[in-house]
Design brief:
- This protein has about 725 residues and is α/β, with parallel strands linked by helices.
- The protein contains 20 helices and 29 strands.
- The strands form six sheets. The chain has a seven-stranded mixed β-sheet with strand order 2-3-1-4-7-6-5, with helices on one face.
- Helix 14 links the parallel strand 17 and strand 18 (about 490-495).
- Residues about 500-505 have low confidence and may be disordered.
């Protein structure tokens, strides 16, 4: 146990987020502490009690300050208990104080931290009972926090001197959507060189400020405000070694510095964001701080970045924490966002620039000279701070186009396709069609246009392709799509195309439930570009659906494996009575909505949720026109068995033909690229391969997209 005299030197452990340790060590030295070593836990240092109080007030980087109480070798539960009993706990905190144990670490004899915490708690209570006759109460929000760490065979016991995490400054009660912790924000600013710029009276802009954490931390640095000055509770409040007069002297000194710093503040701070909810959080956070009125928040798009000519000329730092694109669906908007960020900051060519990102590839759009990269962890996400200098001749050149380098070949191919397809689409009254389908193997995406939206599917690259290289190519594609197609990034949806089997056949990609109507022939159909891998409309079957419309008048139409019943809509509008069968209740309801969209009463038609194989075996009705487009493979739990279309197609066709009236037509289709119809097994039927005719113009680049047959009764 360390003594508590005024001159006594203590050993301290200052914990911090991973990657910040060197900065924290510098901060400790600046405050007057003696750094012993940096560890993966933080920084171990020496200093007296006054310095510890000063550290709690002034550390911008630490998360906790721990006072070591005991360490010893332990090799079983009993030894752990005895080690905890060896501390004179009544000399650490009073019987009336409540306490909690934070236990970290596992070994072969202890793999439950809750049990470890219980043993330490038992030891503390037993010591109190023996020495005082009473026992302190345990509380999850206890006045006292004891931290126990079990590592490398040793038990380390600490008194949590600071209490709640030091990153909680007290101003951020509304955190925003993806907040930075305050100590991480401070580390970003220090690495970006803000303290030196602020000392010169330079300015700071965060053009994607969110709830304003970077700006608040920057303001406190510039105004010499101790980050802990507004905190009301500290871990040391209940420590028996606490010397309140020394603490209050440090608080008074910090208040004097704050008053002087605010009086001398020359830096101007600007926060912009397009999200009003985020800005509301930022302004409310600001109002709770000493910086109220010292930071300007405004709703503004990144492209509208501007400050007064006076501020622009005086220089400063542009710093931001833009979205990283953790979800694949976010990338279409982010690829051009980083380019717009570069373009906007070119209005401030002499300013420094710092970008904190979890996706360095996105930041390739920033064409300033980069002179430093720093690694950080933002929670579980590996991130980098990229620090750029003033714009040079290359970065200052106006960039008329994002189409440069290897992606130019992709852009040229897509442009060529567009020229042909848009003329064809206008002539044929087609509003949804495929623009590109891995025409260049290195750009392995499928791009479909749905009215004025783009639906982009990335084919998962083979393991032989470097993952980082594939992602860079994808980002290049997303960056140039708005320019080549004229469709804004906000209307581009990205998904990853993988084989869907079993449960994943109906697995959601998102939960936005946004449906939009699209036109096809004489009907409208609902598509959902975001929630599922497929959109609700198979574009390669457009000619088949239009053919069904031309044949359906007055017919009884059966649509097997109907999906969203789009073919049934065409048939019903043409005057057919429709029976639509599918296993999925979701898609059948979607089909009913498609009927309603076209002023058809779905109750006048049949929508049947069933395993199509079983339903066909039991079917006793007869139909004039049948469309059967089964999946290539299915092992859904709703099915009795496993469907393999190559193996099972003969049985399927025979059963469907039993339901077909004499003179009727079965249109049988599937998407197995190497499918071979067993004509010998179906020798009694009149079969015509219409695959070539059924593949539309926009799919001719991949003519084996599906196989399609017209099948009638023989004789």
């Amino acid at each position: 146990m360390q003594n508590h005299s005024a001159a006594a030197q203590f050993t301290w452990l200052a914990a911090c987020p991973k990657g910040i340790e060197p900065l924290l060590a510098d901060e400790i030295r600046h405050l007057g502490g003696e750094v012993e070593r940096e560890t993966h836990l933080g920084v171990i240092w020496r200093g007296d009690l006054t310095l510890a109080y000063r550290f709690c007030l002034w550390s911008r980087l630490a998360s906790r300050l721990l006072l070591p109480l005991h360490e010893s070798q332990v090799d079983n539960i009993d030894a752990l208990y005895e080690a905890a009993r060896s501390v004179d706990w009544p000399a650490v905190f009073a019987l009336k104080s409540t306490f909690r144990i934070d236990f970290h670490g596992r070994t072969d004899y202890l793999n439950n931290t809750q049990f470890g915490a219980q043993k330490v708690k038992d030891a503390i209570v037993d010591v109190f009972r023996e020495e005082t006759g009473g026992r302190p109460s345990v509380d999850k929000n206890g006045d006292v926090r004891i931290e126990a760490q079990l590592r490398k065979g040793k038990l380390h016991l600490y008194y949590n001197f600071s209490g709640d995490s030091l990153h909680r400054r007290g101003y951020r009660l509304q955190p925003g959507k993806a907040p930075l912790k305050e100590n991480l924000a401070a580390a970003i600013l220090i690495r970006a060189g803000w303290p030196a710029l602020a000392a010169e009276g330079k300015h700071l802009i965060d053009p994607m400020c969110g709830s304003g954490t970077l700006l608040m931390e920057a303001g406190m640095m510039a105004a010499d405000i101790a980050p802990g000055l507004n905190r009301q509770q500290w871990g040391f409040d209940s420590w028996l070694g606490h010397q309140r007069p020394r603490w209050l002297a440090e608080v008074d000194a910090a208040r004097e510095r704050r008053a002087a710093g605010l009086n001398n503040l020359r830096s101007r701070l600007y926060g912009f964001d397009i999200d009003p909810e985020q800005l509301n959080a930022a302004t409310n956070n600001l109002a709770r701080s000493a910086l109220a009125g010292r930071i300007h928040f405004e709703r503004r798009d990144i492209a509208q970045l501007r400050v007064s000519s006076e501020v622009a000329e005086q220089g400063g730092l542009v710093v931001c924490n833009p979205p990283y694109g953790e979800r694949l669906s976010e990338l279409p908007q982010l690829a051009p966002l980083y380019q717009h960020f570069h373009d906007a900051t070119m209005k401030l060519p002499d300013w420094s620039l710092a970008v904190f990102t979890g996706n360095v590839d996105l930041a390739r759009s920033i064409r300033r000279p980069m002179f430093k990269q720093y690694n950080f962890m933002n929670g579980p996400i590996a991130t980098k701070l990229l620090v750029f200098g003033a714009a040079d001749e290359r970065s200052a050149q106006p960039q008329a186009s994002l189409i440069r380098g290897p992606v130019e070949a992709f852009a040229n191919r897509l442009g060529k396709n567009l020229k042909q397809l848009r003329k064809w689409a206008a002539r044929e009254n087609v509003h949804c069609y495929r623009l590109y389908d891995a025409d260049l193997p290195e750009y392995a995406v499928a791009i479909d246009q749905y009215e004025d939206w783009l639906h982009v599917q990335e084919y998962v690259p083979p393991k032989s392709i470097d993952e980082a290289k594939a992602e860079r190519r994808l980002l290049d594609v997303l960056a140039v799509l708005p320019e080549v197609t004229g469709i804004p990034a906000q209307k581009i949806v990205l998904k990853r195309r993988e084989r869907q089997t079993g449960k994943r056949q109906y697995e959601k990609q998102s939960t936005e439930k946004v449906f939009m109507p699209v036109r096809e022939g004489q009907v409208q159909l609902l598509v959902n570009l975001k929630d599922y891998l497929d959109t609700g409309l198979f574009l390669d079957h457009r000619p088949t659906r239009l053919e069904i419309a031309s044949l359906a008048k007055g017919k009884r139409f059966l649509n097997l494996f109907c999906y969203t019943a789009s073919a049934s809509v065409h048939a019903a509008v043409a005057g057919a009575h429709c029976t639509s069968v599918d296993m999925s209740r979701t898609y059948l309801n979607w089909g009913r909505d498609n009927f309603s969209l076209n002023t058809l009463n779905p109750d006048e038609h049949e929508f049947i949720q069933a395993d199509c194989l079983q339903w066909l075996r039991d079917c006793r009705d007869r139909y004039d026109l049948i469309f059967m487009d089964p999946p290539t493979f299915s092992n859904s739990k709703r099915m009795e068995g496993v469907l393999d279309i190559q193996r099972d197609h003969v049985q399927l066709v025979e059963q469907a033909m039993r339901c077909l009236n004499p003179g009727g037509l079965l249109i049988f289709s599937n998407n197995l690229r190497k499918f071979e119809l067993d004509r010998d097994a179906l020798a009694g039927l009149d079969i015509r391969d219409v695959s070539a005719k059924s593949v539309p113009f926009d799919y001719e680049r991949r003519s084996n997209i599906h196989h399609c047959f017209h099948i009638r009764h023989g004789g």
